[in-house]
Amino acid sequence: MEQCQFCNNMFGNTQMLKQHQKKTKYCLKIQEAKAKEELEAKESKELILKEKIKELTCSFCSKEFKTKYLLNIHQTQAKYCLKIQESQNSQEIISLLITCKFCDKNFSVSSYAKHNLTCKKKFQFLTDEIKRLKAEKDQEILILKINAEKNQEIAILKIKAEKEQEIVSIYKESTERSQATIEEIAKQPTYQKNSTRNIQNNLMFSNLTPLDLSQARVDSIIDEKYTKNDFYEGQKGAAHLVHKYIATDSEGKPQIVCTDTERGIFHHKSSVGDHIVDYKNVHLIKRVHSPLKRKAGAFAAEESVKNPTALKEIINNMTSIRDLETKPCLFNRTLAQLTEKLCKTNRF
Question: How would you class 225 by CB atoms within 10 Å of its CB: exposed for 0-12, middle for 13-18, buried for 19 or more?
Fold first, then answer.
């Protein structure tokens, strides 16, 4: 038995069922009504699908999406779609955009955060600003340095003016003393006794080790060992430096001795072993003066900026080092004391 799927009548075989479905009027009407119903359902479904597709299609760039969420993200973040929206003056979207103050481009909230980290014009602006601030700072430092140098020069001129009379008096006294010494020597006999003092001096000279006063060695030692503390000690600090690092051998023995502190008579052996009588340490001072002035000048310039309240002390110490060749009294007196102490320690 076969049943008709349209009118539900029963038939003996398939051939009778097919003949019924093709020729029976009421069954054909049922088939026509059902076909029409299916067609309407299909058209309705297609219409709903088209509406749905329309809802999920971007109204600006016509791109389709699966959900409204994805469509919303696209319309608020996609650069090319945002450009289309701007060109169409979509105020709703434009009001939500953020404008970069460096490149004047518009971005969504989420995309602006990324752009803010990579904006080339922003980095260029910041780089230029840093250079400008650094240039201003360098200019301020330069002005401070120039002012400090001018103040230093003014202070030096004042000190020189104040000491001018004192210098004249010192030279006059020195001349009178030299004349008196010459007259005293003239009165003495032309021979000398081989006194105990002379024997002791000869023993000291024989125990001296050669003193290396090569300019390269002296420059190297002063550049490395001369410190700010030495600079603030003036000629006294310079004497301590020379005694410790230049005029003392590796065994701690002095390489310079002073036999007459008052007249400044110093002795040392040359690098080849010759006995050198260095009156007022002229030979030694000539070697150390230039590198000391150079290093002291650098310290003075640096400290005058860092410590302007000590400008007078800085100028005095710089003047003391600069006048070392012409007025070495404190330097020689300090060096004589140090060598005498070391000689006693080493039992010369």
Answer: middle
